[in-house]
Amino acid sequence: MRDKAAFLDRDGTINVEKGYINNPDDVVLIPGSAEAVRLLNKAGYAVFGVSNQSGVARGYFSVERAQEINKRVLELLSAENAEVREIFICPHHPSGTVPELAIKCECRKPAVGMITSALKKYNLAPSETIVVGDKICDVELGINAKAKTALVATGYGAEEMVKIESNGGPRPHIFAKDLLEAVRLLLR
Ligand SMILES: [Mg+2]
Questions:
Q1: pLDDT for residue 14 is more than 70
Q2: Are 135 and 157 in contact (CB under 8 A)?
Q3: Looking at the chain, which terminus has fewer C-beta neighbours within 10 angstroms, N or C?
Q4: How would residue 98 be classed by pLDDT, with cut points 50, 70 and 90?
Q5: 80 alpha carbon to ligand 1 midpoint, in Å?
Q6: Where are the alpha helices (DSSP H) in the chain?
Q7: How confident is the prediction for the chain on average, in pLDDT?
Q8: What is the mean predicted confidence (pLDDT) over 114-130?
Q9: Domains parsed from the chain with CATH numbers
Q10: Strands (DSSP E) along 27-117, which ranges?
Q11: How confident is the model at residue 1, as a pLDDT?
């Protein structure tokens, strides 16, 4: 069987964007997110989260705290029978304040490091890859990963769409109002 993999941004795509989320109680799923993940599961996609968490490098919160947020997102999805296997985070940022994390890494989106790690860890070699996110860096990630790519209007997406239209930025295959619409269009 051919592998299929979907890589979804976390904040602003799966759950509501609230700045640098650092409290699991602040995690709220965007309506339709769980259904979108279920559709991907049903269509045979291994689903992962990929999230830049520069708040760790900036000293706003710990890696452990970022992982608690991931856990909460996975729990809320799982409660609705939606399976995201793992959420990968990049804790780095070149201008961070935590010395060992203030680096130019291979995992900060739009670099493909988190996707590479997920495929290796789960032993996948997908012939079809999907990337969905609310930022231009997610679109660029999709392009770099040679994936079918969607930009959603939730989170920062609406502003990012305006930027792309006015500056001729990188174009996703699909502009969608939210993750559910993106997945429906990508699976069509
Ligand atoms: Mg986002």
A1: yes
A2: yes
A3: N
A4: very high
A5: 21
A6: 33-42, 54-57, 63-78, 113-121, 136-144, 157-167, 179-187
A7: 96
A8: 97
A9: 3-155+164-187 (3.40.50.1000)
A10: 45-52, 86-90
A11: 58
Sheet arrangement for strand 3-8: 86-90, 45-52, 3-8, 126-133, 148-152, 174-176
pLDDT in tens, 131-161: 999 999 999 999 999 999 999 999 999 999 9
Q: How far apart are CA 46 and CA 144, in angstroms?
A: 19
Amino acid at position 90, single letter: C
Q: Are 38 and 178 in contact (CB under 8 A)?
A: no
Which tokens belong to 8?
């979804």
Q: Which residues lie closer than 8 Å to 163 by C-beta, 6 or more apart?
A: 136, 169
Ligand 1 mean position, distance from CA 116 (Å): 19
Supply the pLDDT for residue 59: 96
Place of tokens 């993940």: 37
Q: Could you list the active site residues?
A: 9, 11
